[in-house]
Amino acid sequence: MTSDIRVRFCPSPTGNPHVGMIRTALFNWAYARHTGGTFVFRIEDTDSARDSQESYQALLDSMRWLGMTWDEGPEVGGPFGPYRQSERTAIYRDVVSKLESSGYTYPCFCTTEELDARREIAMQEKRPPGYDGHCRNLTIEEQEKFRAEGREAVIRFRMPGTDFTWNDLIRGEVTFKAEHVPDFVLVRANGEPLYTLVNPVDDALMRISHVLRGEDLLSSTPRQLALFQALQHIGVAQFTPEYGHLPYVMGEGNKKLSKRDPESSLAMYRDQGYLPEALLNYLALLGWSMGNDVEFFSPTQMAEAFTLERVNPNPARFDLKKCTAINGDWIRFISPTLLAELIVPFLVRAGLISEVPTEREFEVLNQAVPLIQERLDTLSSAPELLAFLFTDSISPDRSLWTDESRSVLERSIEILKPLQDWSTDAIHTALRVALVEELQLKPKLAFGSVRAAITGQKISPPLFESMEILGQDSCLERLRRSVESLQGS
Ligand code: GLU
Ligand code: ZN
């Protein structure tokens, strides 16, 4: 199915990608995929002081990691490129001059100090504090006079003075009164075009049919609607897109989730070992629901089911615990083989296995993964659980030993040394007979000492399975070393 629906994700490459922007990307992506439309990826890098190449790379890299493929955009191209606004300067200049010659803009010579002073007075007089239209009707002579004084002009858009109402795809009817949307700046005095200009101009030129974005941008919509009227009039736009504003995402303490909150950072999720599918699954729930209480789904399933009717205009609450729980569900859902592959980089990073894992390392990992799959919530917790399988230097904390430990370990060595069948069941039976039945110890006490000697920990993956994986020699060696350390103390 293909359709004329064209949506866009158009972040500015400043700072690190954050979950708020990813949620926006996801809803646009899902809408495009659901409708057979086109998902456009545009980079809004017109603010040379704040944009960076690293951030640009991080955006592309993040989108690829998340599996949100774009149909048009950087490195992919498309019929309406270039898709980096920094490469579109000539286009904007041309549009501005068309707007100028049709009387939609005017130069404004007011200085910041003058604007501030007049805003102050407006507020005292209980008038709207926005731009007061001071330079709207300057004569050519007055403009020349300002220029002669050495003043530089920004270019302002002349608002039509009417109220603006639109039928928001998510919030229903929204109205802004004319007095709350004053004439606004399109181009800085130094010639740099602003978001207010380039965003709608590109939406027009790229034939964007639906603008889906965060609620924080609601107040820019009346200005964009006005600009679109002008763009249509001068032949730059063919139509005005529909607008839908996604709900706020709230963080701790009923405050909006901020880019600075650590749980905002996309890099954190990658670092901690969240699966991209799991993160998208969770982000989908921030304002959208699949219905029937279904909360576990893949991005593809989300796209299949995605409609704007199911987007809730009310603020959504970000809950890291829930996100982590969903990640755990995903970890349990994927195959052990895939999980093992995903864990490799985390073991490498922890220095437990080689960059290119040996066959033996792979074998151990593949055997061990089913033992931890049930209890893993993030991939980054795997190294701690698995460390004892990849290193022989186990040093159990003294607190793990009991009065019986030494005799338990000595007896374990005796019984395990001659064991022919080194299997989970055989190990378990041998130790149970020797320690629980013969020595009459409580299983927890008896096996606790063995666990300490083998894994160095109080809590570990299942003990007998782990011993099978480690092999007889390694286990006996660990038991012996613990006995020695107990003799020494
Ligand atoms: N570059 C803008 C931002 O990142 C895009 C906003 C929009 O979707 O219109 O906030
Ligand atoms: Zn002015």
What's the arrangement of secondary structure elements?
Elements: E1 6-9, H1 19-35, E2 38-41, H2 53-66, H3 89-101, E3 105-108, H4 112-124, H5 140-148, E4 154-157, E5 164-168, E6 172-176, E7 184-187, H6 195-205, E8 210-214, H7 221-233, E9 242-246, E10 249-250, H8 266-272, H9 276-284, H10 299-305, E11 316-317, H11 320-333, H12 336-349, H13 359-372, H14 382-390, H15 405-416, H16 424-438, H17 443-455, H18 463-470, H19 472-488
Parallel strand pairs: 1-2, 8-9, 10-11
Antiparallel strand pairs: 3-4, 4-7, 5-6
Helix pairs in contact: 1-10, 6-7, 9-11, 12-13, 13-14, 13-18, 15-16, 15-17, 15-19, 16-18
Description:
The strands form five sheets. The protein has a three-stranded antiparallel β-sheet. A two-stranded parallel ribbon has the order 1-2. Helix 12 packs across helix 13 (359-372), helix 13 packs antiparallel against helix 18 (463-470) and helix 15 (405-416) packs across helix 17. It is mainly alpha-helical. The protein contains 19 helices and eleven strands. Strand 8 (210-214), helix 7 (221-233) and strand 9 (242-246) form a beta-alpha-beta unit. Helix content is 47%, strand content 9%. The protein has helices at 19-35, 53-66, 89-101, 112-124, 140-148, 195-205, 221-233, 266-272, 276-284, 299-305, 320-333, 336-349, 359-372, 382-390, 405-416, 424-438, 443-455, 463-470, 472-488, and strands at residues 6-9, 38-41, 105-108, 154-157, 164-168, 172-176, 184-187, 210-214, 242-246, 249-250, 316-317. The longest helix is centred in the first third of the chain and has 17 residues, at 19-35. It folds into four domains: 6-84 and 249-317, HUPs (Rossmann fold); 88-246, HUPs (Rossmann fold), CATH 3.40.50; 334-385, Glutamate-tRNA synthetase, class I, anticodon-binding domain 1 (Helicase, Ruva Protein, domain 3); 398-487, Orthogonal Bundle (Arc Repressor Mutant, subunit A), CATH 1.10.10. The structure holds glutamic acid and zinc ion (ZN). The site of zinc ion has 5 residues, from loops.
